[in-house]
Amino acid sequence: MGTLARTKSIEAYKVLIECLNDKTVRGHAIEGLGKLGCVDVIPVLESLNVEKGLYEYKARETALKRLRRRMDKSK
To answer: What highest taxon heads this organism's lineage (predicted)?
Structure first.
């Protein structure tokens, strides 16, 4: 998932979004979306139902923090 994020392509974005439905790689997909840097995914990440204490929860919070900082810098 990290490699996909580094490609910075629309195809990578689509694959990462699709992977959010797969519980086995969901946390890695969330992390990849954060690294991809597309602020449009913020509402998607905010709406994800993730259990506090799990890897995907930490990945979501980190991704949201990263994306919000990026959004603030572009204003």
So the answer is: Bacteria
Number of domains in the chain: 1
The tokens describing 3, both together, are 């490699």
The CA radius of gyration of the chain, in Å to the nearest whole number, is 11
Phi, psi (degrees; rounded to nearest 5) at 71? -65, -40
Chain Cα centroid distance, residue 52: 16
Range of 65's domain? 2-73
The token duo for 19 is 């992977």
Tokens of 44: 């998607």
3-state secondary structure of 71: helix
pLDDT in tens, 14-54: 999 999 999 999 999 999 999 998 999 999 999 999 999 99
